[in-house]
């Protein structure tokens, strides 16, 4: 019978790869915040593509490690679920960045930066939650989960405020549709962070 030390020792690779995925997701949100803080600059998309590539590499390594490993520190389904949730964060962020680079000339006066800041903070909490999986500390994970919920609620409030611009009367139908699309993409990115945090929290609940 394998000891817990043996199981967790052999599982270090999974924790390291999940860390890589979470950090890549966080880096994509940092890049988005930087882009939206300086809307006058021509947006560069390389940082988003690089973060997405790093996330994809980590996801592929996790999938291969699951095939190669007989023992995992937590259930395989949980590892797959968390890897999948993390993968969706930079994917959604890159989607926003690509569209913003094309349409920013039609978004004058719309300040997305405060919402992007909340997204960056949420992704940072996800990084901490993934790191905490090594320790399976329920109390610490609960604190992080509560922080993530507060950030999600605040981000939702800020995004709701943006809807005032839609109904301000100064936008034509095309601009209103465009703005609504950006709201939805950004809101989904924040939701992706929340989903990843929920998976991490549930893993600790299951194993505590």
From the alpha-carbon coordinates, what is the Rg to the nearest angstrom?
Answer: 19 Å
**How much of the residues is beta strand, in percent?**
under 5%
Q: Averaged pLDDT, please?
A: 88
Number of DSSP strand runs: 0
Name the helix and strand elements from N-terminus to C-terminus, one letter apiece.
HHHHHHH
User: So, the CATH homologous superfamily?
Assistant: Phosphate transport system protein phou homolog 2, domain 2
Number of helices: 7
Largest sheet: none
Tally of individual domains: 1
Distance between the termini: 20 Å
Broad structural category: mainly alpha
CATH secondary-structure class? Mainly Alpha
What key phrases describe this protein's structure?
mainly alpha, disordered N terminus, single chain, Methane Monooxygenase Hydroxylase, Chain G, domain 1
What does this structure look like?
- The chain has helices at 4-10, 12-37, 46-68, 76-103, 113-132, 138-166, 173-207.
- Residues 1-8 have low confidence and may be disordered.
- It is elongated, with a radius of gyration of 19 Å.
- The protein contains seven helices and no strands.
- By secondary structure, the chain is mainly alpha-helical.
Which helices and strands, and how do they pair?
Layout: H1 4-10, H2 12-37, H3 46-68, H4 76-103, H5 113-132, H6 138-166, H7 173-207
What can be said about this structure in brief?
The chain has helices at 4-10, 12-37, 46-68, 76-103, 113-132, 138-166, 173-207. By secondary structure, the protein is mainly alpha-helical.
């Amino acid at each position: 019978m394998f000891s817990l030390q043996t199981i967790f020792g052999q599982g270090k690779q999974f924790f390291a790869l999940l860390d890589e995925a979470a950090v890549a997701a966080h880096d994509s949100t940092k890049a988005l915040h930087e882009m939206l803080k300086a809307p006058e600059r021509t947006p560069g998309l390389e940082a988003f593509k690089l973060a997405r590539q790093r996330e994809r590499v980590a996801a592929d390594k996790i999938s291969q490690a699951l095939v190669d490993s007989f023992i995992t520190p937590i259930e395989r389904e949980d590892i797959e679920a968390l890897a999948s949730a993390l993968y969706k964060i930079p994917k959604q962020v890159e989607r926003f960045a690509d569209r913003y680079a094309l349409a920013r000339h039609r978004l004058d006066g719309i300040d997305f930066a405060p919402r992007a800041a909340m997204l960056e903070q949420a992704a940072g909490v996800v990084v901490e939650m993934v790191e905490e999986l090594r320790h399976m500390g329920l109390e610490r994970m609960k604190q992080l989960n509560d922080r993530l919920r507060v950030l999600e609620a605040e981000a939702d409030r800020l995004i709701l405020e943006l809807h005032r611009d839609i109904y301000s009367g100064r936008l034509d139908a095309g601009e209103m549709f465009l703005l609504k699309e950006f709201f939805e993409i950004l809101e989904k990115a924040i939701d992706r962070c929340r989903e990843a945090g929920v998976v991490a929290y549930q893993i600790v609940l299951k194993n505590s």
